[in-house]
Amino acid sequence: MKFDRRISRRSFLAAAGVSAAALALTACGGSSSTAASGSTAASGAAASAEGGVLNVMLETEVQSLDPQLATDGTSFEVIANYTDGLMQMDANGAAVEALAESYELSEDGKTYTFHLKDAKWSNGDAVTAADFVFGWQRAVDPANASEYAYMLSDIGQVVNAAEIIAGEKPVTDLGVKAVDDKTLEVQLNVPVSYFLSLMYFPTFYPMNQKFFESCGDTYGTSADTVLSNGAFVLTSYEPAATAFELVKNADYYDADRIALDGLNYQVIKDSQQALMSYQNGDLDITLLNGEQVEQVKDDPEFTSVGAGYLWYISPNMDAVPELANLNLRRAITFALDRDSITNDVLKDGSSPAYTAVPAQFATGPDGSDFSADQTKFAEFCAYDPDKAAEYYEQAKAELGKDSFSFTMIVDADDAPQKVAQVVQEQLQTTLPGFTLELKVEPKKQRVQDLQDGNFELGLTRWGPDYADPMTYLGMWVTGNSNNYGLWSDADYDAIIAECTTGDLCTDPEGRWAAMYDAEAIVLDQVVIFPLYGQCNAEMISSAVKGVEHHPCALNRVYKNTTKNA
Predict the structure, then answer these.
(1) Residue 250 burial by CB count (10 A; 0-12/13-18/19+): exposed, middle or buried?
(2) pLDDT at residue 299 tops 50
């Protein structure tokens, strides 16, 4: 079924409140630098270990090597291997200096001045403040239609970013200036306490303008059409490559820290084939599915790490009249047995989700996990077949129907298909007369259909781009491109606005409380059906230590990784 609608590309206003650091890893969630039983390698200490090439499995191909245009986690990981931004993550996910030698923040919290290290690109050019200006201007240039442009406007609150994206001002008006080659000045509309953590997100990476323009339309299509200023240099690559390599960058400003000789990526979509490659010694790191976990869960090389993603079902309330009925949506959410999905299907450490913001990635002013209490909204979101039946009868009476039939789009990957099949069984069993058909699509097509409104129900996911609840709550603001059902609520919008550019910007405790109020509206109105917070089940060779796992922005970082022969 094709639904015709217009959708605004306007994203939400950015949260400018309390900074939230990722929690230490406990089962699923948070940041960790302990791969299997290994320990974090300290800067400089890594260099004393043996080198070697790390062989890493990927589930999907790289979609783009353009930092300002990339939108997927695989691309972000690869780009970050050979490119540094102003800041980087430490083992606990906190922002520390990368290309920035130091920085100052003005008294009003709205002007950052970064001083750059002596670093160079792999063509020998110095990395300059102008490279950041050019990269950031590319990100907001409407001609590039960057999906992550809102990271500068709504999230980062860089001066004039929103107006440039809207086509109201030229890119040269962006609030970022090269004072000189080594000094970058950034002006913000309001204080953004987590701004430094945004600086390790690839959208904010620098771009060598002369090199980029010399490549023309070929930029990012081969190893020869990208530059490195980071720990590794890309040596082989082609679009949609199933295997590609990076080698250690001898000219990296922090080369003494890097122990690995390189990275060898292999795209293997069949999980059983990937496990066999691992067992044969062809891979050092591989992902597992739930069935495989049962086979290897007692192996000391098995680990489960938080991936940061919330998986949920989005109903198209705008285009499907039946799904606009609140009681039908309530019947659906109370009919979902999330514990069964995580315990009986996934078996990888993933946890049931009963909140719109997943657990273990955002901490508040008092140091607590924003979503530690998964029973907080039990009156709106829980597994309760009796409540489901009650709401279902009300919906049938209101809609004048005894049966309903919907199609749910789902990724072609193994895990989401298995989850979708269980969801199908649960809904059809608990809600008599309810029929759910499944439509399997490649990820790119699924995302496009969701954004175009070409769906009835969609099984999808969202991962946090930064460690603050607003990375989720902002999706359901009126007009946000990720608000797939086109839900709109004036009270909700007002709360989000107050938390972003209003008085709550500088009131951490008040902002935290207000975000709970906003989340309650989302769950009370059943804007989504939360399912689970994703963990990745992995095998990591005992020869490998210091792989850092993070729930935000960059899921895996290898700068402190060592591998012994």
Answers:
(1) exposed
(2) yes
